[in-house]
């Protein structure tokens, strides 16, 4: 969804100050995603809280998430001038930058404590990613159950408890068909990790446990759209790698405790 669509969607909630800020953003798209909240407030001659309120009115948790969205929009807009190889390389680099700032500790705790772990992918490539995660976690005696169809997900949720964990891999994070099942997870208090594209999306907003993969689209001369996907495999393997490190830390802590 483009920022113009978000403005239309939330138009009735916006006031004169909001439209003033949005006018600056729309006229300076290439600059705004690089600005911190204080810098943008200064450029627009408004308060910091005005920027934050606008971001929240547009459906973002805060300015940081809004800024990521603006960056993603700018990257998508520039892709027509890049080769497919350049787009893929950039997506991988951006995902690696994101990983360096991400704290995986809470998700590692969830994985470690879960009695059962289920993983669901919303499409063919997402399922390939799910099976790869399942394969990797075998090495640490964590057995992930891959759910291959939406109807299976709905059936299995009936038997799930808050001691279980679900990992959902969705390219857009906005696939309408999955939300009845996701709402059931929320209602039952079953934790889940979302793995989605690096953009504002409904699935990520429904859980505090989010992972993002940078994925861009490029349009060929015949109108065919290509989406990169390698970053989803990278973010998945990084989740596994952090879990391996988490286990090592637990072992070291246990040894140090014995020596005291």
TrEMBL record:
* Species this chain originates from: Geobacillus sp. (strain Y4.1MC1)
Q: Provide any one GO MF term from the record.
A: DNA binding
Keyword terms: DNA-binding, Transcription, Transcription regulation
Against PROSITE patterns, the record matches this protein to: HTH_RPIR, SIS
User: What's the protein called, per UniProt?
Assistant: Transcriptional regulator, RpiR family
Locate the HTH rpiR-type domain: which residues?
1-77
Domain of life, per UniProt, equals Bacteria
- Which biological process annotations from GO are given for this protein? carbohydrate derivative metabolic process
Q: Which residues form the SIS domain?
A: 107-255
Q: Does the keyword Transcription regulation apply?
A: yes
Query: InterPro entries under this entry?
Result: Homeodomain-like_sf, HTH_RpiR, RpiR-like, RpiR-like_SIS, SIS_dom, SIS_dom_sf, WH-like_DNA-bd_sf
Determine if Transcription regulation is one of this entry's keywords.
yes
